[in-house]
Structure formats: structure tokens, C-alpha cells
Amino acid sequence: MTGTRRTVAALFLLPALVLLGALVLYPIGYSVLRSFFDKAGDFTGFGNYRTMFEDDGIRTAVKNTAFWVVLAPIVTTALGLVFAVLTERVRWGTAFKLVIFMPMAISMLAAGIIFRLVYESDPDRGVANAVWVGVHDTFVESSSFPNGHPGARSPLKDAGGGAFITREPVRAGQPVALPLTGVPPDQMPDGAESARPAAAEPGKVTGTAWQDFTRGKGRGKVNAPDAVELGYSGIRIEAVKDGEVVASTKAAGDGTFALPKEADGALLRYPASNFREPYNGVKWLGPTLITPAVIGSYVWMWAGFAMVLIAAGLAGVPRELLEAARVDGASEWQVFRRVTVPLLGPVLAVVLVTLMINVMKIFDLVFVIPPGSSKDDANVLALQLYTSAFTDRDAGVASAIAVLLFLLVIPVMLFNVRRMRREGRR
Fold first, then answer.
1. How far is CA 412 from CA 33, 80, 307, 352, 376, in A?
2. Residues 6 or more apart from 311 whose CB is under 8 A from it?
3. Contact of 103 with 111, CB cutoff 8 Å
4. CB of 231 within 8 A of CB of 254?
5. β-pair partners for 240
6. Does residue 246 sit in helix, strand or coil?
7. 165-185 burial, b for 16+ CB within 10 Å, e for fewer?
8. Do residues 186 and 243 lie in contact, with contact meaning Cβ atoms separated by under 8 Å?
9. Coil vs helix vs strand at 426
10. Alpha carbon separation from 306 to 36, 82, 296, 341, 417 (Å, rounded)
11. Closest by CA position to 153, among listed 125, 181, 130, 131
């Protein structure tokens, strides 16, 4: 009645209000004011905002930020939901949750350095490409002779498209020499043995495919196998007549091969598949995939966060509702889609909104992971703000970007506030 309670409440709230004003309200107000001045401090009105939408780099940042806001929270929340549901049915569910949540203990900077190594192009160094190349080579045979080619006096000539073919038709009972050079000794197939001349066989076309090169000037015979030269183990040879393959085979460890009588009078060809470059995987850090690659590292970090919150919500779901649905004949998928997910709606909304706000200010991963050649393609608003302020030293444009980020966050915050009020009225 005397107002004493209000006075005491105001005194208690005063330190918090001062801190809130100094650390939040003042920076917001100053950023809005500074956005109307150019780099030199002269008033420019909405010039910085026009520059913001005319600059290609800032437009790329806006586009990438929108891509982040749409993709990253949805994928992270979906994975968190899957992990939370599955861990309830796994014997070692607690241990699994611990492993999935562990990346949250790593800083963004450390995670960026880790994934910079994971996305290395060299399959011998980058884990992502090592796995990708391993899967690819399981289904598509890798070439062992990417640099192989005939010498100047070889009986072979270029057939186009990376293939090589004999100059003259071959005859049954007459061994053929198919020499090549250009394959480094350390890249020869593991089964390669000392090359030897093929023996003549009646009714068959025989020959030798080998590395016609001996170290040392004047050593070795041209177009003839020497003891120190290795056979092209596993190389494919085709017999071609009138443009069609009538027979094919692979060379043995010593380079020898034999084709049936159908090859008599044909041209022998090394198909281009023998010489294609080995598959080295995907350019994860290239301009095309750099943004999805960085989002992948974010999902790795934050899926555990989503899983823990959703698992907490899942623990509060009445089990009798799930059992009743199963008794009524619903499948597990129907129980999940029509009962579990709707009951988890409020929790999923909290996780999704939290992650949306989080990705709008993503900076560390985008700063660390992309190499210099892909930095501009991976640009986001928070990184562009930093670049404009500290690299370009244009505080006006940087403040305009900060105001834009603030305006983008407001609708998400309002949605969250309205949702919380609806939950409070229930």
C-alpha cells in the first residue's frame, strides 16, 4: 500500500537492468545508429543497406545463411529424434547417448580443425574420402596403369579416348609384343612378375604385355621383354574386328596372355579403362559442396544436444498411450508417426527454434573449415560481419549486417514467446 515493496523490487532489479542496458540495449542502439554512417563517419542514410544488398559477397552470405537456417536445424532435430527413440530400445543406450553427446564438449574451433582434416582431398589423409574411395573401389575396379603409354617405336598406336591398338592385325600361332612405358615401379600391381616372351600356341593368339623400360642408358632391348622388366599383371586386352570386340582377356603376373581363335586376324587393343586416373574421391572443400560439408560438421556437434532434449521429453510421454495404440493394431511406424511425434511436438519446437537462432550466428566452423579458395562460397552473415568490420574496416556496413541479423532473429524469438505463452495457458 505504501509502495515500499515496489521500491525494494526496483532496487533489487536495478543492477540487472544496468547490466542489461550496458551489454544489450546500448550495443543494439549504437549498431542501429552506426549503420547510417559510412566508413569515414559521414552520414549516408540507408547507403550501407543498399551496399549490403548490392555486394556479391554479402548476397552470397545471405543466401548461405538462409540455406543454413532451413537445412541444419531440420537435419539435426531429425537425427536427434531418431537417436532418442532408438536408444530406448538399445541395451547400451546410455553409453550410446554419451558417445553422441561427447562432441558438445568440443569447442567450435576444435571441431572446425578436426573436420578440416576429415575433408582433406587426399584419401590417405582425409577420412571422408578414404571411406568414399573405399566404397567406390569396391564396386568400380580401379586402374593400376594410369600413366601407361606406348613408346616411340612401339607396335601400338593411339586409338582415341585413351585406348591404344596394334598397327597391324595379329595371327594365331605368332606371339605378339604389346610393350608400354610410363608406370612408376612403385605403382606396378602387387602381382607383377618378371616379364617373359609368350610361347606360340596353335589356334591361339598369345603375347606379352609389360613395362618396356630398363634403368640405365643403352640397357635392355626395345620391344622385347628383359629379365628386369615387369609384366602388366591384370591389364585387359581386347581383340577387335570391324569395330566390335570378339574376345578379351587379362594378362598373367608375367604379362603373358592368350586369346582364342576368334582373335585371329583382329587388332589387339588396350581399352581406356586400363589407363583412367585412379578415383580420388569428392572435393568436399570445393566451391560446390563446401556449405553442405560445413553443415555436416555442425550436425555432428549438435545432434547430441537435440537427442538429449528430445529424450527428456520422450521420458514424459505416457506409456499407456503407446501400448494402447499397439493393442489397437498400429505398427511401430504408425505409433511413432501418429502418437510419439505429436506428443513430442512442444519439445521438437523448442529444439528447432533454438537451433535456428544458433545457426543464424554461426561463425567458427565457417571461419576454420573452408580453404582460401572456397571461403567466399561458404560465406555467412556472421563471418561477413567480421570481415567487414575487421578486414575491410567498414563499421557502417558491419553495423548494417548486425541490424539485419537482429531483424532476422526477431520473428523466431516472437514465435518462441508465443509458443511458451500457449504452453503456459494449458
1. 24, 21, 21, 10, 27
2. 84, 87, 88, 97
3. yes
4. yes
5. 245, 267
6. strand
7. bbeeebebeebbbbbbbebee
8. no
9. coil
10. 39, 10, 15, 14, 20
11. 181
Q: How many other C-beta atoms lie within 10 A of the C-beta of residue 298?
A: 27
Cα-flanking dihedrals φ and ψ of residue 245, to 5°? -80, 120
Tally of CA atoms within 13 A in the half-sphere of 194 that contains its CB:
4
- Coil/strand/helix, residue 156: strand
Q: How many CB atoms lie within 10 A of CB 384?
A: 30
Residue 229 φ then ψ, to 5°? -90, 145
Contact 171, 204 (CB under 8 A): no
The backbone torsions φ and ψ at residue 147, rounded to the nearest 5 degrees and listed phi first, read: -110, 10
In angstroms, the CA 339 to CA 316 distance is 13
The C-alpha atoms of residue 313 and residue 358 are separated, in whole angstroms, by 21
- Return the SS3 of 328: coil
- Angstrom distance (rounded) from CA 132 to CA 310: 32
| Mean pLDDT of all residues belonging to the chain | 89
pTM here is 0.77
Q: Are 139 and 342 in contact (CB under 8 A)?
A: no
pLDDT tens, 360-387? 989 999 999 999 889 999 999 999 999 9
**350 CB contacts (<8 Å, ≥6 apart)?**
309, 416
pLDDT in tens, 77-89: 999 999 998 888 7
**66 vs 78, 104, 198, 362, 381, CA distance in Å?**
19, 24, 66, 12, 10
Q: What phi and psi, each to the nearest 5 degrees, are found at residue 324?
A: -65, -40
Cα–Cα distance for residue pair 104/98, rounded to 1 Å: 10
Please say if the pLDDT value at position 186 is more than 80.
Answer: no
Task: Find cell 596353335 and name the residue.
Answer: 202
Q: pLDDT at position 384, please?
A: 93
Cβ contacts of residue 71 below 8 Å, gap of 6+?
292, 295
Provide the grid cell at 28. Answer: 543494439
Q: Would you list the DSSP string of 172-201?
A: TTS-EEEEEB---GGGS-TT--B--PPPP-
In the chain the domains, ranked by start, together with CATH numbers, are: 29-130+284-425 (1.10.3720.10), 156-274 (no CATH)
Q: What angle do CA 402, 404, 406 make, to 5 degrees?
A: 70
Rounded to whole angstroms, the Cα distance separating 11 from 3 reads 13
